[in-house]
Amino acid sequence: MKPLNEYNQRILLQKDEIDAAVRSMGQRILEDYADEPLTLIGCLKGSFIFMADLVRAIHRPLHIDFIEVSSYGNDLSSSGNVRVIKDFKHPVQDSHVLIVEDIVDTGLTFDFLFEHIWLKKPRSLEIAALLVRNSVDLEERSVKYHGFTIGDEYVVGYGLDAAGLYRNLNHVAVFEK
Ligand code: 5GP
Questions:
Q1: Residue 173 φ/ψ, nearest 5 degrees
Q2: Which of 25, 64, 85, 157 has the fewest beta carbons closer than 10 A?
Q3: Domain membership flag for residue 174
């Protein structure tokens, strides 16, 4: 596999821009939930770095869990078919829940996660996404927290992959095959 810089790589978001956005999102979450019980459920694998940074930017006790779903396989386009590979375990009946996603693209994964987690009767259910496509209507979709709006480029880095690779980049870059 070639290193990413041998592809036509364009850095979209530098690490310090991402850090600043995550810090301010963490601060907003801290203020919005006061001392109410709060659980963050990260959607694997793409959210793992964002989740790790976000929870450390929310300076209060909270529960953390993960769910893994598959929708894209190894392809670069959505199959529209979301299924649970690993479910979350933490009981959420008494807790506010924030779904943590890497990117809201078509919104199919978010819709699926929302319905799936809502069945467990959380006190409230909202989403924090690092990235949202500019085609997504944030109000209609009720995306409460998002870091950046991007166009329709396929992006990698900071947790996001191309065929399983490049999740370990510090920045977010546009990936072109
Ligand atoms: P949606 O269901 O909103 O169409 O897609 C959400 C999921 O698709 C994300 O959680 C992510 O895993 C994947 N995805 C969508 N766009 C991109 C992209 O530009 N890059 C990468 N690496 N994954 C993406």
A1: -125, 155
A2: 85
A3: no
